[in-house]
Specification:
The complex is a heterodimer of chains A (about 300) and B (about 425). With about 300 residues, chain A is of the alpha/beta class. Chain A has two domains: about 5-190 and about 290-300, HUPs (Rossmann fold, 3-Layer(aba) Sandwich); about 195-285, no CATH class. Chain A has helices spanning about 5-25, 35-50, 70-80, 90-95, 115-125, 190-200, 235, 265-275, 290-300; strands spanning about 30, 60-65, 85-90, 130, 150, 180, 210-220, 220-225, 240-245, 255-260. In chain A, strands 3-2-1-4-6-5 form a six-stranded mixed sheet, with helices on both faces. In chain A, helix 1 (about 5-25) packs across helix 2 (about 35-50) and helix 6 packs antiparallel against helix 8 (about 265-275). Chain B has about 425 residues and is α+β, with helices and mostly antiparallel strands. Chain B folds into three domains: about 5-215, Rossmann fold, CATH 3.40.50.300; about 225-310, Translation factors (Elongation Factor Tu (Ef-tu), domain 3), CATH 2.40.30; about 315-419, Beta Barrel (Elongation Factor Tu (Ef-tu), domain 3). In chain B, the strands form four sheets. Chain B has a seven-stranded antiparallel sheet, with no helix packed on it. In chain B, strands 2-3-1-4-5-6 form a six-stranded mixed sheet, with helices on both faces. Classes of the chains: A alpha/beta (about 300), B alpha+beta (about 425). Chains A and B meet through helix 1, helix 2, helix 6 and helix 8 of A and helix 2, helix 4, strand 2, strand 3 and helix 5 of B.
């Protein structure tokens, strides 16, 4: 008998440890759930961490109103299966009430508006820890994140003044009104996530698998044709049906799709392991400037 | 890809300044293992051009923050990932400047391997000594010294041997067990991924081969059974009415179903009824597994308590000797009170005595100047409000480490290794 864990089981163990630390150190944690594979992984790990008890915190979905319909379908089914409590924060309602103003123009996206709704919901629910499925390999600003990341009373991140994290000792101390963002899958890569989901046979939204869909190209990225995107006339004329899949799932206005023939999770692993472009390469929200992610994160974006 | 269930995880730190070619080396490891994506590479190339730099500045890959890119320095630990069919690697890339000891210590705390870079033209420097010392202080199990820029010294065996000898001359005073030397050129690729024809006198392995094969199976303590209780699982459901599980991560030893165990602090004994996981019961659990233990008897046990074996108990003390690395710009206060986090336990402490401050370049123990400021390392004595169940840090990095938290600001102000 050799006493060693393979890398996926070691990552799993680390993530479970972090989730239990959150449940032990905070009074009102919440798990941010987007419907993407990383948050699906998070829910799966949370079930493992607290088994046989239910997940001891609710899921929070910030609904931009511009979701792929498949995302919502999957979300509702998952909630039913796990018995988790779901809270939905609505960007549409915030726009209707005049709290935030919708962007205009061809590149309008509700991505930025999510921050406002997220912070409102955290405040409303008096949540003191928000668990997120961000990974350090995703994006250069996220590479600097801690597992336990402190946020001030405005929900802001101060990347130059972060608490050092050593061994497996996590300092979740804070003043009243402040909160933490916690990232249990920090050390996972995109490939790790897929390998693990395959190993665990976790069911996934159909969007991740190759399917036919009307798409059009914008600045080198393929976008799914939908009513939420304001298309230029030449873009509207160029819409065509192609075989595509999502590598990340976000709001329809900023999630690029990729041409792919991958129909099973094994196909996806093969595709990801030889991919020459990063998964967020299709995210137009990251491309607004060189530090788009860092800037949004400082303001409280997930 | 079929063998991914056999892949191991190896964490290593790199220390060195830009001049040592650290970024180039990391860039090469990532590039040669195909872990840099085209769009990442293109973005870095564009940024380099926009900044008017010659060539592609691979440091921009790891320096993710605006302030870092502006100043051309690494402020914070950056984590990078790459994998080969054998292993997945996590690099904690830490800045090499003197003021960043705290980052080096942070990166070193979980590493299996420390990678130290020496510029072959410059030989062993103060900075090299500092890195080696921190690696030994944090008890990183394996040390690999890359003597870089061999191309600039005509791949001279003599130079290599001289540097190796200089390094060994001071490293024997340190507590490092496993040191390995490799002559490389990160820029040209000699002995990084492929064996170099320029160093026929070197019959050792390449850096990547070393990283893929160094034995890390014994890096955990499999002897002394330690299970800090992290969280008590009590489902309020009909199916699991009487279920009371102690969730946590094994910090040492191998726990088996049926084992006699002792609980701290109560001293009561019991037996392991079941080792539970979501995927079903297991017969044994070892580090670093996260599991849930169920006991035969219904006893009082909660977060911060520890499950051990009666014939192999940890130290139980309130007065502790600690090597501390200070992180805060507000100096360590003699007689100061701090919160202390140790395993899953939290206590308060008072600093009873500062024995000496250590000069990490000369290893001189300064007993005169006891002002412990940011990045200083010192030996101190503390007294805690409640006893800690600990092992010496050299026996177990999990049960032998603490962090200090300022009770006013909630900042993590220091890291300590129990002697």
């Amino acid at each position: 008998m050799s006493y060693h864990l393979n890398h996926l089981k070691e990552l799993e163990s680390e993530s479970i440890f972090i989730m239990r630390e959150v449940a032990a150190q905070f009074e009102r944690p919440v798990l941010m759930f987007s419907g993407g594979k990383d948050s699906i992984l998070m829910v799966h790990l949370a079930r493992k961490a607290f088994y046989p008890a239910n997940i001891p915190f609710p899921l929070l979905h910030v609904d931009t109103g511009h979701n792929f319909p498949e995302t919502i379908e999957y979300r509702d089914k998952l909630v039913e299966e796990t018995g988790a409590r779901l809270i939905v924060g609505s960007v549409q309602e915030a726009i209707d009430s005049g709290a935030i103003v919708e962007e205009k123009g061809y590149n309008a996206s509700r991505n930025y508006l999510q921050t406002h709704v997220l912070l409102e919901e955290l405040e409303k629910g008096k949540f003191d820890a928000a668990l997120g499925g961000a990974r350090r390999d995703e994006e250069k600003a996220r590479a600097k994140e801690r597992f336990f990341s402190h946020r001030d009373e405005f929900g802001q991140w101060d990347p130059k003044n972060q608490r050092p994290e050593l061994w497996n000792l996590f300092n979740g101390k804070k003043n009243y009104g402040e909160h933490f963002r916690v990232f249990p899958i920090s050390n996972w890569t995109e490939l790790d996530v897929w390998m693990y989901l395959a190993m665990e046979e976790v069911e996934l939204p159909s969007l991740y698998f190759a399917h036919e869909r009307p798409v059009f190209a914008r600045e080198g990225t393929l976008l799914a044709d939908c009513e939420y995107i304001h298309k230029r006339p030449e873009e509207a004329a160029a819409v065509e049906t192609r075989m595509v899949r999502c590598r990340t799932i976000g709001d329809m206005t900023c999630t690029g799709v990729w041409e792919s023939e991958a129909k099973t999770i094994e196909d996806i692993i093969k595709e990801v392991s030889i991919a020459r472009k990063t998964e967020r390469g299709g995210r137009t929200d990251d491309k607004r400037s060189e530090t788009a992610m860092e800037d949004r994160k400082k303001q409280g974006y997930f | 890809m079929e063998n991914y269930d056999n892949m191991e995880l190896l964490r290593f730190t790199t220390a060195g300044s830009v001049d040592d070619g650290k970024s180039t080396l990391i860039g090469r490891l990532l590039y040669d293992s195909k872990s840099i994506f085209e769009d990442q590479y293109d973005a870095v190339r564009e940024s380099s051009e926009r900044r008017g730099e010659e060539g592609v500045n691979l440091a921009l890959l790891t320096d993710g923050l605006k302030a870092e890119r502006e100043q051309g320095i690494t402020i914070d630990v950056a984590y990078r990932y790459f994998s080969t069919p054998k292993r997945k690697f996590i690099i904690a890339d830490t800045p090499g400047h003197i003021q960043y000891t705290r980052n080096m210590v942070t990166g070193a705390s979980t590493a299996n391997v420390a990678l130290i870079l020496i510029d072959a033209r410059r030989g062993v420097l103060e900075q090299t000594r500092r890195h080696a010392f921190i690696a030994s202080l944090l008890q990183i199990p394996h040390l690999v010294v890359c003597i870089n820029k061999m191309d600039l010294v005509d791949y001279s065996e003599e130079t290599y041997e001289k540097i190796k000898q200089d390094f060994e001359e001071f490293s024997y005073k340190l507590n490092v067990n496993d040191v390995h030397f490799i002559p490389i050129s990160a820029l040209k690729g000699d002995n990084v991924v492929t064996k170099s024809e320029n160093t026929p006198w070197y019959d050792g392995s390449t850096l990547l081969y070393y990283l893929e094969n160094v034995h890390i199976g014994s890096d955990h303590n499999f002897i002394d059974c330690r299970f800090p209780v992290q969280y008590v699982v009590r489902p309020n459901s009909d199916d699991y009415h009487d279920y009371r599980g102690y969730a946590g991560r094994i910090a040492g030893g191998i726990f088996k179903k049926g084992d006699d165990v002792m609980l701290l602090p109560s001293g009561f004994t019991s037996k392991i009824k079941k080792i539970d996981t979501f995927d079903g019961e297991v017969d044994e659990a070892y580090p670093p597994m996260s599991v849930t233990l169920l006991l035969e008897d219904d006893l009082d046990l909660s977060r911060g308590d520890m499950i051990v074996r009666e014939n192999n108990q940890p130290e139980v003390e309130q007065d502790l000797e600690i090597m501390v690395c200070w992180f805060s710009d507000r100096p360590l206060q003699p007689r100061g009170k701090y919160a202390v986090l140790h395993t899953t336990k939290e206590v308060r402490c008072i600093v009873k005595e500062i024995r000496y401050k250590l000069d990490i370049n000369t290893l001189h123990r300064n007993e005169e100047d006891k002002t412990i400021g940011m990045n200083d390392i010192a030996r101190v004595v503390i007294r805690t409000t409640k006893p800690l169940y600990y092992d010496a840090y050299r026996k177990n990095r999990i049960t032998g480490s603490v962090i200090f938290v300022d009770e006013g600001t909630n900042e993590t102000v220091g890291a300590g290794m129990i002697i």
